[in-house]
Amino acid sequence: MRLSSFITACLPVLSLLGAACDDAQAPVDQPDGPQEELSLGDVADYKNDGNWGAATTCKAIPNLIPLKDPYIVVSLDGLTLHLVDRQGTYDKTFPIGPGALQNGKSLTPVSTTRADQLFYTRTDLPAAKDGPTANQAVWSYNYSCRMWWTEEAGGKVPVFAGLPFIRLDGPSSSGYGIHGPIDKYTQANGGSLRRGFVSHGCMRMEAADVVEVWALIQGHKTPVRIQQAVERRASGVAVDLANKWIGAECKADADCNYTGGFCHQNAYSGRGFCSARCTSTCADIASDTATTFCVADPSDTTKGMCVKKSVTSDGVCRRYDQLVTKASVARFGQSAKKADVCLPGTEGWMGDRCLADNECTGGVCMPVDDGAGGLCTQACDKTCPDKANFAGTFCVKATSESELTNGMCLSTCTTNDDCAIGTTCDPEPRNKQPSVVKNVCLPY
């Protein structure tokens, strides 16, 4: 089943990770017990000198009719929040800044480990509003105007800038939620978003976006699915922002709707990614934490093309479909200048796409029906090895395409969104132990 909904959220990490993203005082009608102290994360232009400008002013909420049946999907790899009305036509995708990466994983918790694979907003509860002074901070699941956060030294700073704060019911701390951008929070518009892995678990949104989402989900206990993988529609197309940028998934040049954009095909993924021609340098956009770099086009080395640099705050290429880090790649036309960049390739682990057997760690490159590239697997009897920061693996009966005679190792999954092109997420019994069944990315 492919899901097609999205949300922007701001999930703070548990107290063991640091100070608070939550300045909650004694709760008013608090169902979950005392709040844990949660960390705010990295903040650009942090101020605690009292010169807070517009940060203590409640921001205007648009007068919108709430959706009939809102549903949200957050994709960490996609850096997106997708909000749809399941009984209407509203369908919109927003950029987010979720939890920073720690040991290869975002500090934002996924909901896919829960029995129903969901968290929930509590915008069915009455909205609360902080006052302009620190002693007027209140506790709520549903803020129309949230300002205050308690810093490590104990003082209060209005980093939430008078924007809505949407707590999530379901994670291990009720402090997890969705809020504004935090950076430049003293500005009249509420600040500016960095689209990357930047928080300590909360999902940050643009100021204009969080007020829209808040208004549209009022009166509902809205389901929120937070998943690692890029969300895909039933057609297999990635859910993304209307305005694409370098690195975005594409099918045709027209999908890369910025000046000079074109779609570069990737033999490993079977899909394309957006680029632009260059002679030495490439443009960057302020909202994207990953900058770009001009390299020789692998398919035509007489031409330069723009690609993303490999940086931690953007997931070190791992969030892109079969783009991997290539170290110290020379700038096109200026070979002395080098950078680590994201280019087509494979990490060779089970479930990764491949072009040849020698690219797969201890295994083979199994053909798949889409005809572009293959899938890394290896022989197994009943169990398979796992690897940190990769999906788990599972041993199933080998197919004839694998050219293995017993079992083969495949990556586990929750939905089709977790699987490479040419595979679907299906339940399969363990090889030689059919009573054990798991969902795996099965070649079709």
Textual characterization of the structure:
This protein is an all-beta fold. The protein folds into three domains: 1-238, L,D-transpeptidase catalytic domain-like (Beta Barrel), CATH 2.40.440.10; 249-344, no CATH class; 353-443, no CATH class. Helix content is 2%, strand content 32%. Strands 1, 2, 3, 6, 7, 8, 11, 12, 13 and 14 form a ten-stranded mixed sheet that branches. Strands 15, 16, 17, 18 and 19 form a five-stranded antiparallel sheet that branches. Strands 22-24-23 form a three-stranded antiparallel sheet, with no helix packed on it. The longest helix is centred in the middle third of the chain and has 10 residues, at 207-216. The protein is globular. Mean pLDDT is 89; it is low at 1-37.
Which properties best describe this structure?
1 helix; 5-stranded antiparallel beta sheet; mainly beta; disordered N terminus; 2% helix; 444 residues; 3 domains; L,D-transpeptidase catalytic domain-like; 10-stranded mixed beta sheet
Beta strand count? 29
What is the CATH superfamily label of the largest domain? L,D-transpeptidase catalytic domain-like
Structural class: mainly beta
Output the radius of gyration.
23 Å
What CATH calls the topology of the largest domain is L,D-transpeptidase catalytic domain-like
Q: What is the element string, with H for helices and E for strands?
A: EEEEEEEEEEEEEHEEEEEEEEEEEEEEEE
How many domain modules? 3
* Low-pLDDT segments: 1-37
β-sheet strand percentage:
25-35%
Overall pLDDT metric: 89
* Number of contiguous helices: 1
* Assembly level: single chain
CATH class of the largest domain: Mainly Beta
Distance between the termini: 15 Å
Main beta sheet: 10 strands, mixed
Q: From the 3D coordinates, which CATH architecture of the largest domain would you assign?
A: Beta Barrel
**Global shape:** globular
Helix content: under 10%
